Each structure stands twice: as structure tokens, then as C-alpha cells.
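We both want to read C-alpha cells more fluently, so let's practise on a single case. Would you write everything just below, so we can both look at the same thing?
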Amino acid sequence: MAPRILLSGDPLGRLNQLFKRVNKSAGPFDALLCVGQFFPDSPELLDEFLDYVEGRAQVPIPTYFIGDYGVAAPKVLSTTSRKAENQGFKMDGLEVAHNLFWLRGSGKFTLHGLSVAYLSGRQSSEIQFGKYSQDDVDALRALAEESGVVDLFLTYPFLNFVLLDEIGTVVVLFYTNEWPMGVTKRAAVADIPADVSDSSCSDFTVSELVMELKPRYHIAGSMGVFYAREPYLNVDSNHVTRFLGLAQVGNKNKQKFLHGLSPTPSSTMSPSELSAKPPNTTLCPYNLQEGATESKKRSNESDSDLQYWRYDVAKRQKNGSEGEKLCFKFVCSGSCPRGENCHFQHNAEAREQCRRGVCLDLIIKGKCEKGPECSYKHEFQDESIQRKPRSENANRSRECWFCLSSPSVESHLIVSIGESFYCALPKGSLVDDHILIIPIEHLPNTLLLSPEGESELSRYQNGLRNCYKSQGNDAVFFELVSKRVSHANLQVVPVPSSRARLLPNIFSLAAEKLGFKLVTNKFSDSSDGRKYLQKEYNAALGLFYVELPDGTVLSHTLEENEVFPAQFGREVLAGLLKIPDRADWRNCKISQEEEAKLAEEFKKQFQEFDPCQ
């Protein structure tokens, strides 16, 4: 049975009225999705709103919101962000209260089989809440390259304006909410609400994202009216998109603010079902060229361009013009919807480097400043794009964070060196005894080893197992094998033996929440598990795997162009160990002196188990 979803326009804190209407709807419904401003716009409604947030009133249905702006929003959302259960990688909503979830920034998740994407707030770098960042926009553009169809796209376009007096003092600050630019074009004039014109719909960033994501339904609020546009065709896709604009809850004009849907998930539909086109279907209303022209009227360097193509190619010329910048979209995907109208370079060499897994910052800026946490390659795969020709080995030595000959290697973290491998503490370790097993040779993964290398790796694994066991812990090994990874590192984390039995379930549940499944196999000998992984590994696709203490191997073969969360293994273990605040390694940074002290302490613990002593 298809899921039943309720959609709501701006609640504006009027949760009593919203949930009363929800309870009267012809349910039951599986979830409520709110677009537009969720928080109150005046203090008078704050007590009613906080009753639900603080648990004095019950939210009757799982409710998700994106309009993270209004009275009390900073206080409520700051508290929400600090909750232990909301730490780590979460795109399916941060829990504010029972049945109430905040969709922060941007993301995509699966809800009752439906693929739901969202973009929340207005673009700003100066406020903490009620905003989206450039990284949020770029993340959605990356999601557009993934396989599969987005069923629902939720947006909350929200722009702010400031009026200044003659000496620059702010005298008026006001806000306006806008639908995507061009949404009413090619639509039946009789159906367009009286107060809506194309000139009032001028959020070009959302128009671009909708063209790229091609959702089946695009839902927005904040214009104060209800509007169900005719379906329209998508460029380079067989399915249609339906736009729904919803009014504010409790609006005086009695405009519709609650709408029910029961869409069949696209993942279960046949190609013919998905490509069905109603008789009133129109052409796509959005025009990128017109949007670019309008954006240029606003400034010499368009806001849209800054969002779409944000990297300067300083390596081309010291004073590079607009034409000397690389098109971010083309480099990432190999195509650009603006085509010949794009004012930025469609450089095939740069695209090829990106396709081979080279760090974007290295390609476009000439250097990467992220340090060891960057999981992309830091050497060019084709010398034609480099500033100065250099040998492959010299390039690796200079750019790779894990090559022992590299000036960037953090030698104070090394705890053991063998013939084929060395062991080191990672930067920002999850726990004190978190270890990386790293091949000395510049290898992309640990599944492509010589027999001698495999033998030494096995000895290191057994040594770490025994070391951890002496402290009442078991060892968990995991590795992401991907084109993005230049130099392999097999991560090893100790977990209390009493909690090891929970590992298979917690990994599988975390994978399901992110929309993929882990294949489970159990082996009596760890070497058999490694042989299985080597057989499963496909160099063209990639692989994530976990080796558990009981001989179970969990694995997931990455699909082509799949964007796999690089910190997935760490985030799952952070949850198991009840230290969710350490899921992000950047929260765990310590001084070099403290790192060196931890390394020395582990050396002493590992000495009697070290196979290379």
C-alpha cells in the first residue's frame, strides 16, 4: 500500500490549529511534512508552541519541518543540536520532541519508501538558524547525480532585505518569501492565484535545483496562497514534476494549507508508470538563460554564479576574468544545463581529474587545505593539468598524507612500523586506542596485497585483537574502498566485549536509515573473510566493509556515482559507545603534544603484541 502523507504550509507556531485539522483529516496518515515558517512570528503564540516542544502536549503524527526561523527558534534548535541522539550524520531529521523532527540545511532520506529531499531557510553566512549554506546547495547538486528519482522536494525560499540610512545604520530589516523563478510560466493563467505573478517568484537558486533534481513533487510555502500547478516535463527525464504551493495555517482568506498525498514510491514503479503524462502536462517552466540575465542585473558578479561556480582558477592567470573560472557543475558531473550560455570554463581535463577521484580543491585552487581528513586523491592522474611536471613518486611524496616519505606525514602518531605496513593513531581519534593500519606502499586499498603483505596485515590484526582483549575489549576493523581514497587506511576501534554482540544490528540499522543494505557473511577464520572481500571487490565501483569480532563480515558494494558517507563506520561506533559528540573527528582535536603522549602510551601497551618488535 502506498504511504499516506500530509503536507502543510507555514504553521507559524499555530500547532493547536494544525494538529486539530490533522486529527480531523481522513486518515490515518503516515507523516506530516511542513514547509514555510514553522516557528511563531509573534511572542503571543510562544506558550502554545512550547507546549509541544517541551512535551506538555503531544504531537499526534511524525512531523518533519524545514522552516527553522521565528520566535524562539535559536534557543529551541540550539538545544536540539546538542542532544546526544542528534549527533553524527543525520539527514532524516533531528528530534526536537517526540514525533517532531527538524530537517536542517539540506539532505535526502527515505520516508516510508519515498525519497525525500529538502532545502531549508535562506542563504546566509551570518546567522546560525533559518539559513542554508553553499555546502547545502552543493550537496543537493551532488545528490542530483545519484541514480533514482526524488519523490518529494521540500523548499523554504526566504530572502532578507536591509534598508540603510545615509550613514549606513540599519533602519529597516524585513523578510520576503518567494517561490522558484518561472514556476508560473507556461501554466494556465486561470489557475494562477491573483496575488501571484512571475515577477514575485524570483528564487533562481531553487529553480536551478529543481531542474537538476527533477522531483515528482515540489512543495513550497510562504506565499500565502494555495497553488497546484499543472504537471510539467523535465529536461532529459521521462517523468513529470508537480508543484504545490501551500498557504499559512489559519490564514484569514481561508486558503488551503493542508494537502494529502498517497504517492507510490518511484523505486517500486515500472518505467511506464513513472513516465505517465496527464493530458494537461506543460513544458518545463524554468529557463536558466533568463535566470542568469536577471541575476546579472542584480550585481556584476551574480549571486547565482557564486552559488553555482564558486572556485577561482588562480593557476590559469593571476588576474583571471570570469571566463578563467571553472564551471563547478561541469567539473563534478561532466555536463552543465547552461551549455554554451555558461560564462565559465567547461574544462575536460579538470573533469577527468575529478572523475578519477582527485580533490576538487587541488584541481581548482591548486592546493587542499583540509589536511588528512580529506579522503580524495592529492596527486594528479595526468600531468597535463599540473602547474609543473613532476614524477609520479615525487608527486606522491609531496601530496599524500600517509606516505612515510611525505613531508606532510604526522610521524609523532606512528606506533609501529613493519615491512609492508605501519600503524598510527588518527588525527582526532574516536577513542584513545583508535588505530590506523596503513600500507607503506602507496596503495588505494588493503584488498590488493601481495601474499607477503596479506600475511603481515593478518599479524597486525591479530596483534591488535590480543592487545584489546587484554583490556576487556574486542577489535572492529572497517575500510572504505573508493576512487576517492588515494592511500589506504584500515581503521581499528576497540569496543567493550560486553557490547560486541550489538554490532551487527547497529550497523545494519544505520545503513537502512541511510538507504542502503549491508550484506552479512560469517566466517570461522578471518582469512576466509578477507578472501571473500577480495573476491567481491570491483575496482570500478568500490566497497565498504566491516570485520566484526565474531568473524562476521558486513559489506556494501558502492553503486556507480554513489555518494557514500566517508565517516559512516566511525559514526556508527560513536553511537554504540555512547559518545556521539565524538562522531566528527574535528570535535576531538588535541594538541600535538597530547597526540604524542597518547602514541607513546599505546606503544607501551602494544609492545608485547606487536608482530614487528
